[in-house]
Design goal:
It is a single chain. The N and C termini lie far apart (72 Å). The chain is an alpha/beta fold and 691 residues long. The protein is globular and about 105 Å long. The chain folds into two domains: 63-203 and 422-573, FAD/NAD(P)-binding domain (3-Layer(bba) Sandwich), CATH 3.50.50; 221-416, 3-Layer(bba) Sandwich (FAD/NAD(P)-binding domain), CATH 3.50.50. The longest helix is centred in the last third of the chain and has 53 residues, at 624-676. Bound molecules: flavin-adenine dinucleotide and NADP nicotinamide-adenine-dinucleotide phosphate. NADP nicotinamide-adenine-dinucleotide phosphate binds at residues 112-114, 202, 208, 210, 225, 242-248, 250, 265, 267-268, 370, 372, 393, 417-419, 534, 536. InterPro entries: FAD-bind_Monooxygenase_sf (IPR051209), FAD/NAD-bd_sf (IPR036188).
Length: 691
Amino acid sequence: MGSAVENFPATAPAAGDILPVPREPEVVGISDAREPQVHPALAARIAARYTPKQETWREDRPVKIIVVGAGIGGTTTAVLLSQKVPNSTITVYDRLDNIGGTWAANVYPGARCDVPSHVYQLSFEPNLDWTEYYPKGAEIQQYYERVVAKFGLTDSFRLRHKVLRATWLPEAAQWALEVQNLETRQVFVDTADFFVSSQGRISEPKFPDIPGLADGVFRGRVVHSALWPSDLEYQGRRIAVIGAGASGQQVVCNMLKPAGHVDHYVRTKTWITASLLGDYVESTADAPGGHVYTDEEKRAFHEEPGAYVEFRRDLELRMQRSRRKGASTIGHPDNEQLREKILERILERLDGDEEWLRRITPDYVVGCKRPTPAPGYIEALKTPALSYITEKIVRVDETGLITADNTHRPADIIVAATGFENGYTSRFPVIGADGVDLRDKWGLDSPVGYPESYLGVMAPGYPNYFTVLQAQANAAGGSVPLQAEIAATYIGKLIRKVQSQSYRALEPKQEAADEFNNLIDNYFENKTILGECRSWTKIGFGKGRVVLAWPGSFHHRVRALREPRWEDFNFVRRPGAELNRFEYFGNGLTDLDETGDDIRLTDYLREYSCSSRNATSADVSKDKRRSQVLQAQRTHCQRTQTYIKMLEREVLRLRDSEKTALDRAERLQKQDGSSTGGSRDSGAAAATQRV
Ligand SMILES: Cc1cc2nc3c(=O)[nH]c(=O)nc-3n(C[C@H](O)[C@H](O)[C@H](O)COP(=O)(O)OP(=O)(O)OC[C@H]3O[C@@H](n4cnc5c(N)ncnc54)[C@H](O)[C@@H]3O)c2cc1C
Ligand SMILES: NC(=O)c1ccc[n+]([C@@H]2O[C@H](COP(=O)([O-])OP(=O)(O)OC[C@H]3O[C@@H](n4cnc5c(N)ncnc54)[C@H](OP(=O)(O)O)[C@@H]3O)[C@@H](O)[C@H]2O)c1
């Protein structure tokens, strides 16, 4: 059988050449020479020719997203997805009374953040009016509440609603969540295309398993630091605080004065450091917030935006660089140096008392547990107001606590500052595509015993399920709000993919998740986090599995999540798109072609002035700092323009919808007018003119 091209010249014909007449294609399996059959490959192509449903391609198919958790993770996700996923309906459920998660729950006396206020905020929503250098918990809570309100999302937050169970419905390609209204106790089902879990890694308070405490023998009051009763009177009462993490130390320091005396039960000691950003601004007993911003400073933040950015940049760089050195590597001279520096400062605060220094120095490497600033704690140790007790608590009786040395110490109130249950895997059932509860795969009792996420954001077998600030989600050097922003932005991209093309679900491939997880243990192999201590950041004592952290720096995570690796995903097509992945190509038109306004149709045009601010290579070589500033100005300029464009679009959108409403009103009025025979000056038409 001849080739289809055999009677054509081997070389390209030149102008004026006489070309041979092509032979008829040879017939395969002749039955009737007058009806030549096409080659099977071509026949297959012809048979597969496809016409999608003749609809306009709309990128913004309506989608519903449910977020569980209204902490920093959930609020950031809701805010960013509301901006990044058009035509989305977002509902956020939280069992608490207020937005803010950690900062709504932990209202014990003196609850405060040890990261500077101007860092512990969203990059795109700076608050220029923070009161102190280290913010009080209440101020953080109010900040997130304000952000939610500013983005018009307050009504999307359904507080005092507890999610009990989530189930993936493969036929519907939706998540069904069982939710309990904590006011009415009623349970209802809400469904969504996408489900984001941001339940908090440390949101479920854990009480100590001490005989006599759990079984109600103790006649006084028992409270947990994260479940603080608003009516707790503790002036002049005998207080026992169990737990020496950051919460325990803050509670002790803040109850000391009103109570007069506190017994502090310390099972494991905690490294006490001045500040997490080097010794930049130290919080002290008299100034636990480190520094109170003056009106003048706040005014300068408002009036000099450039200077404010520089101020923030300095803080952010301190945060990034503080984590980059060898200080987090076991045996590294930087870690040793850090330890010496911390000991020196503690000794100073102890007025040189070596005996006390020995008593409170932890026996594990600096960085294994999160250090705490504990302003005022060290200073109180040597006073009669504070009893530092390291003997094991063996039981609690009706009136107090008994330690292993058989000492009974009376107490009116026991404060359990004993941390939280493991929150790296959902605390309620999450049933995936194969009917398996994620807790059975990732829970402490599962065969592996820890979560094996895909990039700290997804789980194979759980389509359209995302997590924010759960396992492997904290990259060294970036604040918690920034980590949430990175994840939410990434999730937005995944949702947009499904929303805009022929898909209804996506999930990471198991092999992709496996290969990501195979990197983790080796990355943390000699890091201080795997020192000989117990911590909520890992599972197990000492060399356990690190669950908190991303295997890399903050910028490493930013870069890794900037663009989704589509090759790592399995997709589920939408009904009707089974035969052709380009079903969404529709009739060849987009909604822009049909309804786009001037600006949207020419979205690719940019104002030249921004790019003219770009640093030249001469600038770069001459003055690095200047080029950085120019670059920052350019970015700022572009962002401003993007923002203006967004506003313009919004105005146009509103104008469109108003016009539609007015047209309709006018039509109705006309109908009304014609039916009554009258001709009225339409208010709607006048309003249209105004627009
Ligand atoms: C006392 C304290 C102080 C801290 N200080 C610092 C600090 O100084 N610096 C720092 O970087 N980090 C600090 N942290 C860590 C802090 O938890 C994180 O920085 C951050 O606030 C976590 O936000 P999140 O949204 O992930 O979780 P959370 O704030 O815990 O929010 C999770 C939310 O999910 C809700 N939820 C859980 N399950 C359900 C359910 N089934 N149904 C409905 N809602 C549910 C919870 O009610 C909660 O509101 C601190 C933590 C604590 C406890
Ligand atoms: N502004 C701040 O700096 C700030 C304030 C509060 C919290 N935080 C953050 O929140 C995280 C959680 O802090 P947290 O203090 O609430 O919890 P945590 O760090 O987990 O500390 C819990 C403490 O309770 C002790 N404990 C638990 N069970 C006990 C028992 N049965 N008997 C005796 N002691 C027991 C633990 O000892 P073992 O170590 O021996 O288990 C530990 O000292 C911190 O890591 C920190 O990141 C920060």
